[in-house]
Specification:
heterotrimer; A alpha/beta (259); B mainly alpha (136); C alpha/beta (661); B: 136 residues; Fumarate Reductase Iron-sulfur Protein, Chain B, domain 2; 2 domains; 9 helices; C: alpha/beta; Rossmann fold; FAD/NAD(P)-binding domain; 5 domains; 5-stranded parallel beta sheet; 20 helices; 34 strands; 30% helix; 25% strand; globular
Chain lengths: 259, 136, 661
């Protein structure tokens, strides 16, 4: 199984663990992730304005390269996934964006949304299968009560992201179960952590993460996993009682490739 | 206090611009308030999400542009996903922010401010996002 | 040469405002064959009609062209006038200079030119019109009612009372429908069962009514007055003639895992069961998916305990075919599935319920014997939150764009039912708009607010967070623009109504159409609200659109009146504008039989003389009773052997020639 792989800037700096454990695990699962050459930062937030073209170009470059290789494009960071997936949707459905982007990029062949972007978790669920993953677990995480923190960017907007039920998702819980641990559902697992508000409105971001952590604690969550570096930062910022890790770290641990 | 003028002539162009940038139609809103009811950031908003749409319906742009609300919105898309009228309020918030920061010298976040706002653990993602959201 | 009269209508200013009537008249006078031209302000009025009648008599007209509105509007009126003056009505031709001319044009000169062209075409066609005489078909004096809810029951009773036989087909094991599940009815709060169950009994005992419960429509053939319907009676596994309804089998059945459909899953039922105590007929049915005998071959306890030997495990579905003159469709509605509304954790939490479940929870015959208790722990709730418009007026892919119409009233009813029994329970209703038009309806809803102290909050609920044994309801009061959190014990969701999932399938069998929301389409939204586009098929109740009980019953009686009117005729005139086959030309390829959407064309073998010898030849044959005159066959026929009476190929071509002059 071979995929094109888009890492994103944060994975090369503050969130190296997210990537390291993902790559180790992929190797253990027999999945080849080939990092794209000369990838560029996705911009971290999807450009919501209808008239923004320039900020979508880096995503299209990544998409076009994957399409050209005829490979699915795998992402790891929730923000990168969100941006690239939505830009891809624009390239499929908005003629105006498609024409302007192609005029600007002058690729060998026009890009029209042919590539498929999947998140690493979707790769585990849909390409490998959680049942098959469970069979490969050598070090089951028995007796650990783990909560999934989904955040916003993987789930919403639901129709474009098409990741899971936006209000009542289950993919990470199923993932936790496949690793031998006990998933704990708590009501705030899809509520926003504040995201980039932690830069400019720390107080509000803190209030938002507080609500999430309270909900997790009340429901006896012992550890939390996430796929987003910014969520992890926001949740950790205010927390001491619950350990927060990337989902890939759990995966590597269960597959016995953590070191 | 003077009485409100619905969609004042002086604001028509700007309103049109906001609607075009967002690609949304505020007339679809029935003021059910579901956006507000589920907004995780509403506690720090001076006007609530459903009021933002109402004020846009009425063309009261200054009240929206001068609000704290548009800067409290975290673009989490909770309202977008739940709206029974298919309105993407996150896009409208963005359009209002852009009409402000696109005018010269109006960036909310200046490069000089950044060192005071970050800490060693903060991921790049936050800084890049902040620049994209608050600066042009 | 024909003697044609042309009558130009002003339609007030509708036509005369855009079309120069004088010019049209002058042009008409010059057309060969036209001997008389007149105009009038309102040709459809009595004065206008007399103008035509007199001209027919005095001028000895043998063709009439009326330049007016669409033939859909007044063709029948003018044909009738011509007939009374002694002219065959099919010698009348309409030139539509309103809908197809004055209404769609602004420039008077251009509109006048077009009106003249349309008159020319109509005259050209009229010249070739021939006298047509409609035939007669019989009407089977028996009606079929599809659906045994309150709509079906009411219609059937009305038709039966008028002296005609009626069969009711009901899909489930008992008649009664949704109304049987309801506790009290608005706006009077009288007991639903008390007013419905006597009607159910009346229907089952009426000498003119025959029930096919646990049955479905398999196939429909035929046409108005002469439908032939095949009914599938599903295997009940119980012989209804032998069963006494003693109930021993249902008591003894060891399998009690199935969820009661009648109690909306709030109670379990056996594999052999009677849906509810007042069911009609009071005969159990075996759910073969649940029955141990069918699943494992073991058990058979019901057969052993039945004192009358009524259990028949080897029963099979049976097909019955019956002729009907009229069909009334009354298949009702359902609630949408709430799986996609994860923000209201209906699928996750037992204390989040639908309004229909609420009905069962407050019903004295329900699973809690009418005590209003939390499904999760059996405790009395302290705070109950109602959320309206869950999926109604919702343009997203999760919901329905329409207003479900009944929710505002039943929610007010629910709120009052709680307050009546337990005044100390706090009740909150989140709404977008309160819509209560109807006799005594608004007063009813206001009573909930003013007398019972129900807290109406204009706004929606964003999300319900289950926290401990409470449900944290995050909402907004849009009027004060304050967000709020209510620590509720129960949340009741007014789920949107929807058409039955199999409405389209049934519609296809009946050749009746459904709208974008799968509700059956009435023939005209104002003037023909209970008819369909298929003659002899009528609509009653919520299968046509969301409706409350009073409206449903009113519509049911209306549908009954229409059906009775049809059955009472005994004979019907059919449209003489049907296809005919020129057997000389027909090559017997039968392409027309495949094309015909009404199965009106079959093949027949005839004997013809060919070069002195008698030879057999296959040709197409039109059943004039089935033919709807669509003309599809005439353009399919490569040999040109088919022609539509009243719209012959040469008539159409004459019109085209006249327009292209």
């Amino acid at each position: 199984m071979k995929f094109s792989y888009y890492p994103g800037c944060t994975l090369k700096t503050k969130a190296q663990e997210l990537e390291k454990f993902a790559l180790n695990s992929a190797a253990a699962l027999g999945v080849e992730l080939e990092e794209q050459k000369e990838w560029q930062c996705c911009g971290a937030v999807y450009p919501l304005a209808e008239d923004e073209i320039g900020t979508k170009l880096s995503s299209v470059r990544a998409l076009a390269e994957a399409a050209q290789k005829n490979e699915k494009l795998i992402t790891l960071c929730a923000a990168c996934h969100h941006v690239i997936k939505r830009v891809n949707e624009d390239m499929k459905t908005k003629d105006d964006v498609k024409n302007k982007v192609n005029n600007y990029l002058q690729l060998a062949q026009d890009y029209q949304g042919e590539a498929e972007v999947i998140h690493y978790l979707e790769m585990l669920r849909d390409e490998i299968g959680f049942d098959k993953l469970a069979e490969k677990v050598t070090n089951p995480l028995t007796n650990r009560k783990i909560g999934a923190y989904y955040g916003c960017l993987l789930l919403r907007p639901a129709e474009t992201m098409n990741f899971d039920d936006p209000e009542n998702p289950s993919i990470i819980e199923e993932f936790i179960k496949a690793l031998g641990a006990t998933p704990v559902k708590y009501p705030y697992r899809t509520e926003c952590c504040g995201g980039y508000l932690s830069l400019d409105n720390k107080e509000l971001a803190q209030e938002m993460t507080d609500n999430i952590m309270k909900s997790a604690l009340k429901n006896e969550v012992e550890e939390l996993v996430t796929a987003c570096p910014l969520c992890k930062y926001n949740l950790e910022n205010k927390n001491g009682k619950i350990a927060i890790s990337y989902f890939t770290e759990l995966l590597a641990e269960a597959l016995g490739v953590k070191e | 206090m003077g009485r409100m003028k619905i969609i004042p002539d002086a604001k028509k162009k700007e309103l049109q611009q906001i609607l075009e940038i967002s690609g949304e139609n505020v007339k679809d809103c029935m003021q059910c308030g579901k956006c507000t009811a589920g907004c995780p950031a509403s506690s720090s908003m001076d006007i609530l999400p459903h009021q933002v749409i109402r004020l846009l319906q009425l063309g009261q742009l200054d009240k929206v542009a001068n609000s704290q609300t548009i800067w409290s919105c975290a673009s989490c898309f909770t309202c977008t996903t739940r709206c029974p009228r298919n309105i993407d309020l996150a896009k409208l918030m963005e359009a209002v922010r852009l009409t402000i920061i696109r005018s010269k010298g109006s960036s909310r976040l200046k490069a000089d401010d950044v060192p005071g706002k970050i800490d060693p653990k903060m991921p790049q993602q936050a800084i890049v996002s902040g620049f994209r959201k608050y600066n042009k | 040469m024909q003697r044609i009269g042309v009558f130009v209508c002003w339609c007030g200013t509708n036509i005369a405002g855009t079309v120069d009537i004088d010019q049209v008249k002058q042009a008409a006078e010059k057309i060969p064959g036209v001997v008389n031209v007149q105009d009038y302000q309102y040709m459809c009025s009595e004065v206008g009609q007399n103008l035509i009648k007199n001209a027919i008599k005095e001028q000895k007209l043998d063709r009439v062209v009326i330049a007016s509105c669409s033939p859909r509007m007044h063709e029948a009126t003018f044909r009738k006038a011509a007939k009374s003056a002694g002219l065959n009505p099919y010698l009348v031709e309409i030139a539509n200079i309103r809908e197809q001319c004055s209404w769609v044009h602004k420039n008077k000169e251009e509109a006048t030119e077009k009106a003249i062209a349309l008159v020319r075409a109509a005259v050209a066609k009229a010249t070739l019109n021939t006298e047509l005489v409609p035939g007669e078909i019989g009407v089977e004096p028996r009606a079929l009612e599809i659906g045994g809810g309150i709509a079906g029951i009411q219609t059937a009773l009305d038709i039966a009372e008028a002296g005609y036989k009626v069969d009711i087909i009901e899909k489930t094991p008992s008649i009664g429908g949704k109304m049987a599940q309801i506790d009290k009815t608005f706006p009077t709060l009288d007991c639903s069962a008390c007013i419905l169950t006597p009607k159910m009994v009346d229907a089952s005992t009426h000498p003119n009514i025959n029930l096919y419960t646990y049955s479905e429509v398999e196939a429909v053939q035929g046409y108005v007055g002469n439908f032939e319907v095949t009914i599938r009676q599903k295997a009940r596994s119980v012989n209804a003639d032998k069963c006494t309804g003693c109930g021993i089998c249902t008591d003894k059945c060891p399998s009690k895992k199935a969820e009661s459909e009648f109690d909306e899953g709030l109670r379990k039922r056996g594999a052999i069961y009677i849906p509810f105590p007042q069911a009609v007929p009071n005969v159990p049915v075996i759910d073969r998916e649940e029955c141990l005998k069918f699943k494992t071959g073991k058990c058979g306890l019901c057969e052993r305990v039945c004192p009358s030997g009524a259990i028949e495990f080897n029963q099979e579905d049976t097909l019955v075919t019956q002729k009907y003159g009229a069909i009334v469709v009354a298949t009702g509605y359902d609630l949408i599935n709430l799986d996609k509304f994860g923000e209201y954790p209906y699928t996750e939490h037992p204390d989040v319920i639908t309004s229909l479940e609420f009905e069962r929870l407050t019903s004295a015959a329900g699973p809690t014997a009418g005590k209003f208790l939390r499904p999760s722990n059996g405790n009395k709730p302290k705070k109950v939150v109602f959320v309206q418009c869950v999926g109604s007026r919702d343009k997203s892919s999760r919901g329905k764009t329409y207003c479900s119409k009944i929710c505002c009233m039943y929610t007010a009813k629910h709120a009052m039912l709680i307050k009546e029994k337990y005044p100390e329970i706090e009740v909150y209703v989140f709404y977008i708009d309160v819509r209560t038009p109807g006799k005594n309806f608004d007063e009813f809803q206001r009573r909930a607010v003013e007398e019972y102290g129900v807290n109406y909050i204009k706004g929606m609920v964003g999300k319900v967070f289950p926290e401990g044994d409470k449900l944290q309801v995050h909402g907004v009061d849009a009027l004060s623009s304050e967000t709020l959190i209510i620590d509720a014990d129960m949340v009741v969701l007014a789920a949107a109504t929807k058409a039955k999932d199999d409405a389209q399938e049934l519609g296809r069998k009946l050749s009746i159409s459904t709208d974008a929301n799968n509700f059956f389409t009435e023939a005209h939204p104002k003037l023909r609200p209970v008819e369909t586009h298929s003659a002899g098929i009528y609509l009653a109740g919520a299968c046509q659109g969301p409706k409350d009980i009073p409206e449903t019953v009113a519509q049911s009686s209306a549908a009954a009146a229409k059906a009775i009117g049809l059955l009472n005729k005994g004979k019907l005139v059919n449209n003489p504008c049907v296809s005919q086959v020129d057997e000389q030309i027909c090559s017997g390829c039968l392409a027309c039989t495949k094309m015909c959407p009404y199965e009106a064309i079959s093949s027949q073998v005839i004997e013809v003389k060919e070069q002195g010898k008698i030879v057999k030849k296959t040709v197409a044959h039109v059943n004039e009773a089935l033919c709807q005159g669509c003309g599809g066959c005439t353009v399919t026929c490569r040999a040109g052997a088919l022609d539509l009476k009243g719209f012959m190929n040469r008539q159409i071509l004459a019109e085209v020639d006249a327009i292209c002059l």
